[in-house]
Amino acid sequence: MNKITPHLLRDLHATLPAGTECYLCSAVRKALTKYRKGRVPMAFLDKEQALPLLAKKLGRGLKRFLRDDIRSALSSRKRNAMETMLKHS
Fold this sequence. Notes:
Elements: H1 6-15, H2 26-35, H3 47-57, H4 68-88
């Protein structure tokens, strides 16, 4: 696990879509909750709803703090999008 610095926590707080906190690894989720002074969203998004939001809005370099299954789903989603683009060109 990579070290979560105060700078990275600020970036994560600013770019993480609301309701996707449950897809962070546990140590980072705890650190973010502490950074937000215990505030957590009222509801969490389904994985299918969260993936496009995370792919689009999550700040650069912060994907490493996601759970392994979410990271692999994002990379396969990106790979599928690239293959589709290549087929259409």
